[in-house]
Amino acid sequence: MKNVLSAPFMVDMIRTATDMYSQGWDERNSGNISVLLDETEVKKHLDIPAIVRVIPTGFEAPELDGKYFLITGAGSYFKNVQYDPKKNLGIVRLAKGGAEAEVLWGLSDGGRPTSEFPAHMMSHAARMKADPENRVVMHCHPANLLAMTYVHTLDEREFTRTLWRMCTECVIVFPDGVNVLPWMLCGTNEIGEATAKEMETARLCVWAQHGVYGAGRGLDETFGLIETAEKAAEIYLKIAHLPILNTITDDGMRLLEKRFSVKTREGYLE
After folding, report:
1. Using one digit for the tens of pLDDT, what is the confidence trace for 132-149?
2. Neighbour tally for 201: CB within 10 Å
3. Per annotation, catalytic residue among 27, 63, 116, 230
4. In what order do the strands lie in the sheet with 204-207?
5. What is the DSSP-derived secondary structure letter of residue 52?
6. Measured by CB atoms within 10 angstroms of the end CB, which terminus of the chain is less buried, N or C?
7. Is 116 a catalytic residue?
């Protein structure tokens, strides 16, 4: 008998949600994750049943039609995912050009996909165009990145350069930079469309006074991307009020480009 709870993608999802909660990124029912699944992998671990129910999504994403996603549920507490994954997670398949989500497993209390489902799916579509191997979209509320949006200009180039200068690893981990949206109402198609636009050029998008969106090829990569940016924001907040005597120069960052075979975003270095 197939057991989807033992599937590698499910084990990784549960572990990641638990780690995100332990980092303090996902208080109460905040934050959400979606993972694009390979149909073969789904069918290896789940007997595809009759559709449990169909949920209108309120958006269209024709390029995602027929795709399978493992998602967190609306109102789910990340701290509870490990204890009751079938209630707090769901596997859905998009249909009718993305206008419907067919629930195949999970969301067992009659729940719905995360309220940020439109933003997730639009971001998946955007990232798949930039990188066909992209599989993960992750949203959370890291305190230092959030705090930084109150005291730092939201200019994307300046925001990125500040983070790059905080840790040697930053320019290596996110050479494509960090995009930033001003405060917008969450859970709407408007913020979903705006986020997807930002995801065309970077894997990190900060929502001012709210949190961050990250995208990547796997859960570990995406978690590490956010983790690195959050560490840099923490360092910035610790030193921003002090006289800066030393920093990572643009010449230093060019040396990192060469050493680690990365290409920084065009025009972001002097």
Report:
1. 999 999 999 999 999 999
2. 15
3. 116
4. 53-56, 100-106, 89-95, 68-72, 32-37, 136-140, 211-216, 204-207, 178-181
5. S
6. N
7. yes
CATH topology for 1-113 is L-fuculose-1-phosphate Aldolase (3.40.225)
Single-letter code of the amino acid located at 69: F
CB atoms within 10 A of CB 203: 28
Cβ(173)–Cβ(163) below 8 Å: no
Burial class (CB in 10 A: 0-12, 13-18, 19+), 50: exposed
DSSP for 66-135, please give it.
Answer: T-EEEEEBTT--HHHHTT-HHHHEEEEEEEGGGTEEEEEEE-TTS--B-TTHHHHHHHHHHHHHH-TT--
User: Model pTM greater than 0.90?
Assistant: yes
Token pair, residue 202, equals 């970077």
Q: Which amino acid is at 258?
A: K
CATH 3.40.225.10 fits 116-270, yes or no: yes
- Could you tell me the residue ranges of all domains in the chain? 1-113, 116-270
